[in-house]
Amino acid sequence: MNDFRNRDFFHEGMREFQDLFDGRRTAEAIEKNRKHYDFWDDEKELITNSQFFFIASSWKGYIDCNIKSGDPGFVKILDGGIIEYPEYDGNSMYRTAGNIIKNPNVALLFVNFDGKSRRIRINGQASIHRDKKSLEKHYGSKFIVRIKCEIYPNCPRYVPNFKDNKSSPHIPRKGKGVPPPPEWKQRDYIRDILPDGDPHKKP
Which of 145, 144, 146, 148 is nearest to 122 (CA)? Predict the structure, then answer.
């Protein structure tokens, strides 16, 4: 398996839109300051307490997005920026697992719908494990999916607050003026390089 961590973070299609909207500087600053390969403490807390996450997998143009669920702690964090989760009894289609067997590249999203917790986005390479030692760590599992992770958190700017039944205040709305800026736009490595035309860029 090739080390996916050595590949470019942005491909030509991403670069095209970055240049179209003057976002290359901002994108590169985010990559430099936020992309990492070992979980930060707040990320460990979010993942450990999560009852679900989303995972995307693909094979030869066939793309699948799924949700994996369990009690808090069903996703375990291992050393070296690796996580694993159990596959429980399902509908016998094995769409995610089948894609992983053919193509180990996956993408994950951990998110709390509270309007304040950062999202955790993960690009990774997955593998399937059925050995006794792996299975014993996850009660009721048919097999284990283990993922080597490239991590980059995102702000929760547009995430709704389901707990309080509130939508995001950052969504542009007609007649409401410029929405408040997200916290990340005020960081030292970002605030002076925001794209031209950004409503929060200081003159």
Answer: 148
CB atoms within 10 A of CB 39: 22
Neighbours of 203 (CB within 10 A): 2
Structure token pair of residue 145: 């999916």
The CATH number corresponding to 4-186 among 1.10.1740.10, 1.10.240.10, 3.40.605.10, 2.30.110.10 equals 2.30.110.10
Structure confidence by residue, pLDDT tens digits, 139-154: 999 999 999 999 999 9
Predicted confidence band at 4 (pLDDT cuts at 50, 70, 90)? confident
Tokens standing for residue 26: 């901002």
Q: Are the C-beta atoms of residues 55 and 96 closer than 8 Å to each other?
A: yes
Rg (CA), the chain: 19
φ, ψ for residue 57 (rounded to 5)? -140, 165
